Amino acid sequence: MMSSIDRLSAYLKKELIIGGKTIKNRLTLAPMAGLGHIALRELISEFKGFGLLFTGMCSAKAVPHENSSISPVFRWRQTELPYLVCQIFGSEPESMILAAQRIEKEGFFGVDLNFGCSVAAICKKGSGAALLKTPQLACDIVKSVKASVSIPVFAKFRTGWKNDPSFAVKMASLFEESGADALTFHPRVAPDRRSRPPIWDHIAQVQNAVSIPVFGNGNLFEPSDGLKMLEQTQCQGLSIGRMAVAKPWLFAQWTENLIPEKDIYRYTALRMIHLLAKHYEEIYAVKMFKKFAPYFCANFKFGHNILKKMIYGDTLVDLKQNVEMIFQDQPEILQRPNLNLFS
Length: 343
Ligand SMILES: Cc1cc2nc3c(=O)[nH]c(=O)nc-3n(C[C@H](O)[C@H](O)[C@H](O)COP(=O)(O)O)c2cc1C
Description:
- The structure is a single chain.
- It is built from 14 helices and eleven strands.
- The protein has helices at residues 4-12, 38-47, 93-106, 120-123, 135-148, 165-178, 200-209, 223-233, 242-246, 250-256, 264-279, 282-297, 303-310, 316-328; strands at residues 16-18, 21-23, 27-29, 53-54, 58-59, 84-89, 110-115, 153-160, 182-189, 214-217, 237-240.
- The longest helix is centred in the C-terminal third of the chain and has 16 residues, at 264-279.
- The structure holds flavin mononucleotide.
- The site of flavin mononucleotide (FMN) has 22 residues, from helix 9.
């Protein structure tokens, strides 16, 4: 009998066609502002095992004239473009079109439209999940972007503003009719920011309503979760957020059966510092490491204490010394991460 990781990997390694383009693997990195930056993506790319990576959300108004060597967010390595999707947020079809056209011109795999973010600063301007209150406008955005580019168009959304899966099902169909090539669905109500568990059954209802692929998202922590979501919901792929920050080798583990060695933790922390230093100025690199660290420290027993030690100081040299010191004590690794450290 196949082990659960073999079953998971067999499923994930099936090709999938999205908007006429084929991906070899159905495991993707979810968009995460402040976490899914160029350095994390380079680290994940080194470990391999994923189908697509997504950038954190970029402002559609800024993207057309953004200087990618200055912007910390709208920044990429040329070699990742064939598997990188750029996510944009905005509230008007015109600005979303211009941003998507720049994204196509730069050579990204696709563009992802954000209908899921429920942070007040984004929703106040009518972007993100606020667009689920105006389904017509949300669909106009999808339609106009689809008509303006030939790369795949993704839409990421959540249940809506009421706990009513029939709304999500309706939105999924409308997005498909408007031309979306794939959906990422996060089954939580806005503005719940991960305080209650996502309702996976709603993913099943959404996938059942459309013929385009749906990537299920929310609380995937271990291979058994991945298998369960696929079997329970019949979704076509998985989208991993926070756990990919805690374990950037997760993609290789789930699809290539990579067995992480104990030293992978020390290696990952040091490599993250190195890659942040490669791509960013020191102050920003230190800031990004401090955002990464809570998720990473969730891997350890007494993670809160380890976190305090790991982020002490203001320079990259401080951070490197912290990591070396922490791993001299051989911290105990938890089977399931301490989710209190995830936000
Ligand atoms: C720090 C942080 C930033 C996020 N930024 C974005 C974003 O820019 N765009 C987006 O669509 N979702 C964003 N999300 C939501 C994730 O894509 C994902 O839906 C959520 O974390 C649930 O998946 P998970 O349980 O695998 O982490 C963010 C989540 C976190 C924790």
